[in-house]
Amino acid sequence: MYLAPQHVYRFTDEQYAKQDETSRKAFLMNCLRKNYVIEGKRWYADNSREQIRDENLKEGLVSKGAVIVDSSVPVTSSRGRYSLREHFARLFLLPEKEFDDQALQWQKRYLSASELARVRIMRERQPSEASVQVTLPNGERRYLAAGGSSVIAKAVIEEFASRFLIKPAVLWISESGNHVVLQDDRLMRDLGLPIDQQRLHHLEKTNPSLWGHSPG
Length: 216
Description:
By secondary structure, this protein is mainly alpha-helical. It folds into three domains: 6-84, no CATH class; 88-116, no CATH class; 132-211, Trna Endonuclease, Chain: A, domain 1. Helix content is 45%, strand content 11%. The chain contains ten helices and six strands. The chain has helices at residues 6-9, 13-16, 21-30, 49-62, 86-89, 96-110, 113-124, 148-164, 185-191, 197-206; strands at residues 67-69, 82-84, 132-135, 141-144, 172-175, 178-183. The strands form three sheets. Strands 1-2 form a two-stranded antiparallel ribbon. Strands 3-4 form a two-stranded antiparallel ribbon. A two-stranded antiparallel ribbon has the order 5-6. Strand 3 (132-135) and strand 4 form a beta hairpin.
């Protein structure tokens, strides 16, 4: 069975708890109905459809050979056109004690050296208890380093943006020592707002107060 982006952004914790095959198949079919009300709070906002389709699927899982596409279904169709490849789907059926080893073997076989390095960095940057969790307008969660600036960023994104902006989106998040925590390259290209990370590094050294540092 093929899935569509709405099967991802309309998913909820309550639906996740329904593990039986009948409930899962019912969700797949009902989700394609525009007025169907999903039980619980959605994991992602409706406006995350393009991000899931273009970044997570097309530029992510499809390009890595983890997902196949039914090209006979138009990109804009509400019908499903994506399906997990067997070698990738098989990972989710493994006993927990076998998953880590098999997942590592899959990564070595299907990911490039740079992609493997990115996975390693992400694993090493697991959030600590003091990390500040931020929920973006599209429902995605990110963790920022502990500190007052992260608390302010959280308030701006979760409180200010939702109250005073129409369809807000986060283009870029930076923190001291890690200039780019999040960057929506596609959106920034569309808006013509490139970020020069080398210039950011220069600004931090010449204007430390911008990043909350005290000179010396």
